[in-house]
């Protein structure tokens, strides 16, 4: 059940109407949990059992950690982490490991058969695994009391708006809201629906239309360097609109029900350094790695060399988290090197011309890194980068549909104005809200690209 489908819209409306018809919070929690189970089962039903198993283990671990002392607490935290990470590694990296070691083993054991397991990655596994681990870690640190209500804890992990692609929430933000009965507020509904519509627009109108040009650029040879640059830069905006569009829909759907999720994006492409970029891009993931990996490794309390090593480790793990492919690992390593080696030019006191210049340079650097993220293999990425810097072909967009390309440029311009000039999602007047909804619905209907275009980050 993709967010950009009629099935989801019907599901969302039915769940929301039932939610506000129920007088007791206990009933609402049960409703949302059942709805979240149905939502998750719409992808691969059998994997609900795996998710349920980890929920039970983490729930018990939280109770024991919160009521024990000494080694027992650490033992149960270790069990929780091993189970969660073990499931993630098995489903996401087993075949990658087998494919990697097979060439090394074959010369030594020529008759050995390296199996390829028929494993389907549970959707959103990386996201809800990290969210579950944040709970047990926070309980262990004494920053979060253990949740005694199993249904509430299960909903914390499975809350359908952010179940499959985040934001990766913390228990301190979500659990208190799940215990509190939310009164119906028209402002919440308006703000939530406006944000959802903007998310739909970013996904079906901008991201999916950009994908037409991007897919062509990455799927064909013989394009001019300028055309390949267009494809690369369009992908920067495609992945932003795709992922932040999902986040807007998730935050909007939760807001309609009175639940406030954390922001996941803050205009990342105006960043003046890679360091600043990571304070604005996928904020819930970068803050997760900061709190649970970087700081435990010593953070900035160690020597400068050790600090840079810690930063590099975080970005290496971030690349691995994103996918079982060397392209993601290289992408993470590149960002790690850029953060450790380049200065942070995120000062708010910088002059306008300086901010614009470094913003453009930083965007181009991020775009070059995205080539590895988008490419199917390292070889394809290197070949694409070589094509971008080929000399002597002139300024031509040979190979691209010119009309489609300029429509995409117009849509990117609309995105920039809307995201950086008019960021508020709450429209005060009802007439203005109705007009906004009409324009967004019409734009999605007439300009949207519809089909089985799932969100990019669903694969993680």
UniProtKB/TrEMBL annotation:
Residue spans crossing the bilayer: 6-22, 50-68, 75-93, 311-340, 352-375, 395-417, 429-450
InterPro entries, per database record: Ac/AlaTfrase_AlgI/DltB, AlgI, MB_O-acyltransferase, MBOAT_fam
GO molecular function term, any single one: acyltransferase activity
Localisation per UniProt entry: Cell membrane
Source species, domain of life: Bacteria
Entry keyword annotation includes Acyltransferase: yes
Keyword Transferase: yes
Protein's recorded name: MBOAT family protein
Membrane topology according to the record: Multi-pass membrane protein
Entry similarity comment: Belongs to the membrane-bound acyltransferase family.
GO BP annotation list: alginic acid biosynthetic process
GO CC term, one of those recorded: plasma membrane
Key words, A-Z: Acyltransferase, Cell membrane, Membrane, Transferase, Transmembrane, Transmembrane helix
Main localization, broad class: membrane
């Amino acid at each position: 059940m993709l967010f950009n489908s009629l099935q989801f819209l019907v599901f969302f409306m039915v769940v929301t109407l039932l939610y506000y018809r129920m007088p007791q919070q206990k009933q609402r929690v049960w409703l949302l949990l059942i709805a979240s189970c149905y939502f998750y089962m719409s992808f691969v039903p059998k994997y609900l059992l795996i998710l349920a198993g980890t929920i039970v283990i983490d729930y018990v671990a939280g109770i024991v950690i919160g009521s024990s002392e000494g080694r027992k607490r650490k033992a149960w935290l270790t069990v929780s982490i091993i189970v969660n990470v073990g499931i993630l590694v098995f489903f996401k990296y087993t075949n990658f490991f087998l494919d990697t070691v097979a060439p090394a083993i074959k010369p030594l054991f020529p008759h050995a058969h390296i199996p390829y397991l028929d494993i389907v990655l549970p959707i959103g596994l990386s996201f809800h695994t990290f969210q579950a681990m944040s709970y047990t870690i926070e309980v262990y640190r004494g920053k979060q009391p253990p949740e005694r209500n199993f249904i509430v804890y299960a909903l914390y992990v499975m809350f359908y708006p952010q179940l499959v692609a985040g934001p990766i929430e913390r228990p301190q933000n979500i659990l208190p809201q799940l215990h509190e009965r939310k009164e119906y507020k028209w402002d919440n509904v308006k703000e939530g629906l406006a944000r959802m519509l903007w998310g739909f627009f970013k996904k079906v109108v901008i991201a999916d239309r950009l994908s037409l040009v991007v897919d062509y650029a990455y799927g064909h040879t013989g394009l001019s360097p300028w055309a390949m640059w267009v494809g690369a830069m369009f992908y920067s905006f495609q992945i932003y609109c795709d992922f932040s569009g999902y986040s807007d829909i998730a935050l909007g759907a939760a807001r309609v029900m009175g639940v406030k999720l954390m922001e996941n994006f803050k205009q990342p492409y105006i960043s003046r350094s890679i360091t600043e970029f990571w304070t604005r891009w996928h904020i819930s993931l970068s803050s997760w790695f900061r709190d649970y990996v970087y700081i435990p490794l010593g953070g900035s309390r160690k020597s400068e060399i050790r600090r840079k090593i810690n930063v590099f480790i975080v970005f290496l793990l971030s690349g691995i988290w994103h996918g079982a492919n060397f392209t993601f690992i290289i992408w993470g390593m590149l960002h790690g090197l850029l953060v450790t080696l380049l200065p942070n030019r995120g000062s708010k006191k910088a002059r306008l011309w300086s901010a614009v210049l470094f913003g453009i340079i930083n965007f181009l650097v991020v775009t070059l890194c995205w080539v590895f993220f988008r490419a199917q293999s390292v070889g394809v990425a290197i070949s694409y980068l070589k094509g971008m810097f080929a000399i002597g072909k002139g300024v031509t967009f040979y190979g691209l549909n010119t009309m489609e390309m300029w429509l995409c440029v117009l849509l990117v311009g609309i995105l920039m104005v809307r995201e950086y000039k008019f960021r508020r999602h709450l429209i005060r007047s009802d007439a203005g809200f109705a007009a906004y909804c009409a324009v967004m619905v019409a734009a999605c209907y007439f300009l949207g690209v519809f089909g089985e275009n799932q969100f990019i980050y669903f694969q993680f």
